[in-house]
Structure formats: structure tokens, C-alpha cells
Amino acid sequence: MCGIFGCLSNNDNIALLMLKGLKRLEYRGYDSCGMAFLDNHVINVKKDVGEIDRVNDKVNFLELKGHLGIAHTRWSTTGKVTKQNSHPHQSCDGNISIVHNGIIENYEEIKQVLTVIGHKFVSNTDSEVIAHYFEEKLKNKSINEACIDFIKEIKGTFAILLLKQDEDKIYALKRDSPLAVGICKDKNILASDIHAFSNLTNKAIFFDNDEFGIITKDSYELFNKDGKAIEKLIKSFEWKEEETGKKKYKHFMMKEIEEEPKVVDRLLRSLDYEQKNDFGKLIELIKKSKKIIFAACGTSYHASLLGAYYLHKIGVEVQTLIASEFKHYANVDKDTLVIAISQSGETMDVIDALNYAKEKNAKIVSLVNVPYSTIQRMSELSLNILAGQEISVASTKAFVNQTVLLLRIAQEFGYGVNLKNLSAKLKNLFQQKEKIRKIAKKISQSNDAYIIGRGLTYPVAREIALKIKEISYIHAEGMMGGELKHGTLALIDDGTPVISLISNSDEDIISNTREVEARGADITIITNNPTFKEQENVIYVNTGNDGKFGLLAATAGQLLAYHIADVLGRPIDKPKNLSKSISVR
Ligand code: M6R
């Protein structure tokens, strides 16, 4: 959720680097942002409400001087979107400044105690207590002792960067929210994820839970919760970064959809070469396990539903669960293999599900996009989906590569699918953009839309509905065609948009489509059935009878959702209330 960034450098002017670094984390939250710099023993703070560029236009972060700073981009949890609630937060005396990602669960209790002894709070956030907590502790304790107490006394999750007016250091603490140090030649960078600094270094160390650290421009010391110094291995990471910036595109979402052919090929190649061993190990683990459960959220969950469909077709029993409900529905033991699917690798609901599964001694593997993310580091084995950086909050190319990896797994068990021509088929689909935009214009005029599918296309119906809701703010329901008559049909009136996903000549979904049409629905069809091809309301996907249709229909849906949102002038890459990395429960 929020993004935090800190830098300590030899160079006295780091404002631009800080601004660029923070921008790279903006997909984690964009309600407000701010920076605190240490300059000649004075902490200077600038912050305000809005996206980083807008706030920068107003406050000009580049005026901040100094070689040491912390920064924050917020996704609000506690406290409304106001300037006062923006980070960094200060202690009463202004000597301490902090940025925080996470939730301090017992902040009200702490705030009350601190208020009684005279602390004045200016925000309604949980995070502000951190600055006052340290101010109070440091009256009679060392900073290390204060950190040890903090980890003991605080309930909740945190990645914190803390500046003290009299020290050329950044103090950092972490529990559950991600935190890494990027090691560069002439500076150290602290950030919520490696993307923040992957353009500057490929070396990083990662904080684990209940650790704290003292970072200078050329050193770092890390400690466990008892204050014992710990050794950290420097990890070298490889992070595929597509051409930076939006280039010719109006939005990252479209750029990322058009990257799909390239990233599909990259993943397929890697499964044959670089990741061949790990892929083989994963197949063996699946074969050996008595029970297989996927755990995922949102779009990644829809990919897992497709995975379950493919595997069921060839007799491999798998269950898939939305991670936030995992502990209520999963029956897990030592013979269970839990396969986590996550783009960010930081989704708290998935992490919780994995912790629950670990307690029951299940085996954990994962399919993730962000290397060295928490979920990857929690897994015995993890495959990279190699979609590269996904900036738009709406997941597109990551969904495609998650599904491709699941198809490859199913292939190993005998599922017949030709993946070699997938990227060409994707490119082919992009040629229908004009037709898709025309259909999108029509749908954009409605308040509700229904997307129906069956079997292979049921997960796709849900995924298209999620995409439409997320970026266009139109209410959309993705459902099994067969369920319509059990209730939802009552909502279909003259002109209600229904998108029907017709795989080949699936008679059942064709009848469901007729049923809604008879009630006046305005039908759009996404199909690989050539008999519908020439109709105006049809997005034709030129592919055969293998499981690729599901994937290609999902991409057609991504394009449709994109154009609906674009016609409506929505902020497509940064939809309201959302964030790319959901690290709260
Ligand atoms: O990073 P993850 O794949 O674990 O994220 C899960 C969901 O939050 C994510 O897929 C979300 O639904 C997307 N923004 C939808 O486009």
C-alpha cells in the first residue's frame, strides 16, 4: 500500500533522485505524498494532498537541500486524505520525522498515554504516534533500546523510516510491510520494494519481520528484536524492466497490454532454459502431493480458477481459494501443497494464508512477478512469471503470464495446448481495437454490465467484470451463465449490457445468451466461433479449441474495459481508492 523511500548519499543534492524514486513507488498509493530532508541539523518537510506530480507543482520538492531524506506516497487507511494526515509526521519538538507503511493497531491506546504526558497530535493517523513514541522514549533511552521497545509494544504492521535531527542516519524498522535496502556505490537507498531502486542497483538486502536497522550512506547494521546484530546476505536480483515511461501510450495499462506477446515469449523461453530446473521441481511436487490448493486474490485468483479448470480437465484434483478466506475453507496438512499466485508477492491476505498453511506443515510454493518479494521469500520454491514491472493498478500482462505458467503446468500433465503461437494470436487481437472501442462506447453509457461464461470462460467473465469495475467504475458482475436464471435475470432490462463469452459452439452458453437477449439485453459476444465472426457486436478471437481461448478472451476483455474507462475519462492507471500492492488485511 503506501510507498516509503529513503536515501543517504555522498551527493549533497538528492532531491531529484528522491522524487524519481518516490514516483517509482506511486503505484502503491497516490492519495498524498511528502518528503523530509535533513540539512545542517534541521529537518525540512514538504507534503500535500494529491498525486506526486501535482504536489510537486505546488510545493516544489526540488527545493529541498541535503544528502539525506525520507519520502512517502500514501494510500489512506486511518485518517482521511488531508495535508495533516500526509507523511512525514513529526515529533512535538520537530527533532524526529517518520514515514510509515502499515497499520499501528494499538495506536489509540498509545496516543492516549502520550497525550496525558503532554504530546500534541496534529493528525488523525495511526502513524503519527510513531514520531511521538520515539520522542518520548529517547528522553531516557538509546535509539536501539527504543527500537527494541517499539517492536515489543506495538501491535500491527510497519515498515518505518525515521530521521533524527542530530544524526546522519536513517533508522528503519519492519514487521509484515516490505522493506529493502538498495546498495549502491555512493549511497544507500531504503524502499518498500526493489523497483524503487532497480534502475540504480541490482544489489539489495531485505529486512525480515521484527528487525530494525541503522543505515548510513556507506554502511548498514541490522538487529533482531532483542537488539542482537545480525548478518544479512546481499542478494543480486534481476528485474525485467520494459522501456521506461509511457512512450507513445496515453496510459500504462495499454502499454502493458501490448507488452503481452513479448512477456509471454520471455516466460515460455525461460521455462525451457533458465527456470527449467525449478519448473521440473514444481511438477514433481505437484505429482507427489496428496492435495493441491491455490491461494490468491483478485485477478490472480481468476488466473488460479483458470489453472484449476485446465488441471481438472486432465484429472489433476486442485482446489482454489481466495486467500482472505483460506483459513475458513482450507483443510491443510503436511501432504498439502499450497501454490500462492501473486503479481506483487506482497499481498497480505496471501501472506496470511501461507502462514496458516505453514503452521499446518503444508508445503509452500509460489508463482510471483516481483523477485525477492515476501511471498517468494516465504516459499520453498518459487517461479517467476517474468511479466516485468506492471505499473498500472489493473493487472493485465501479469494475469496473462500467470495463466500461461498454469497452462504450461497443465501441459506437463497432458493438457493439449499449443502455446507457441500465443503471442502471434495476441498481436492479432490488438488489430480489432477500433471495433472494441465502438462497443466500449456503447457500454460506457450504462451503470451496470453483466458478463457471462461457462467452464473455461467463467473465470474470464469474472476477470473482465473486475477490470470494468476497477477502472471504469461501472458496476459489473461476472458470472456463470447457468446461474442467471436463479436470480440475476431479474436485473436484465431493455438495453442492459451483457457480454457473453462463447467458447466454440457451447450450446449452453448460447442458450443463456438467447435468454438475456429475449429480455432486451444489449449483447456483446467474445467468441472463437467463426459463425459469429462478421457480426458488429462480436469480438472474434481467432483460435482453436484448446484452452488458449480463455486467455485471449481475457485480453479482449482488458481492451474492452480499457476503452470503456477511457471513453469515460477515468484515471485508468490510478483508479480511485485502489493500490497496486495490497499489504493490509
Ligand atoms: O499482487 P497480487 O497479484 O497478489 O494482487 C492481487 C490483487 O490485489 C490484484 O490482482 C487486483 O485484483 C488487481 N488490481 C486487479 O487488476
The CATH architecture of the largest domain can be given as 4-Layer Sandwich
* Category from helices, strands and their pairing: alpha/beta
Helix content: 25-40%
Strand composition percent: 15-25%
What is the H level of CATH, i.e. the homologous superfamily of the largest domain? Aminohydrolase, N-terminal nucleophile (Ntn) domain
What molecules are bound to this protein?
Answer: 5-amino-5-deoxy-1-O-phosphono-D-mannitol
* Termini Cα gap: 11 Å
Biggest sheet architecture: 8 strands, antiparallel
Number of separate strands: 25
Residue-averaged pLDDT, rounded?
Answer: 95
Number of domains: 3
List descriptors.
seven-stranded antiparallel β-sheet; 34% helix; Rossmann fold; 3 domains; 585 residues; alpha/beta; eight-stranded antiparallel β-sheet; binds 5-amino-5-deoxy-1-O-phosphono-D-mannitol; Glutamine Phosphoribosylpyrophosphate, subunit 1, domain 1
Question: What does this 3D model show about the protein?
Answer:
The mean pLDDT is 95. Strand 5 and strand 6 (96-104) form a beta hairpin. The strands form four sheets. An eight-stranded antiparallel sheet has the order 3-2-4-1-10-9-11-15, covered by helices on one side. It has three domains: 3-236, Glutamine Phosphoribosylpyrophosphate, subunit 1, domain 1 (4-Layer Sandwich); 243-420, 3-Layer(aba) Sandwich (Rossmann fold); 430-585, Glucose-6-phosphate isomerase like protein, domain 1 (Rossmann fold), CATH 3.40.50.10490. Helix content is 34%, strand content 23%. The protein contains 18 helices and 25 strands. With 585 residues, the protein is an alpha/beta fold. The protein binds 5-amino-5-deoxy-1-O-phosphono-D-mannitol. 5-amino-5-deoxy-1-O-phosphono-D-mannitol (M6R) binds at residues 297-300, 342-344, 347, 350, 393-395, 466, 470, 582.
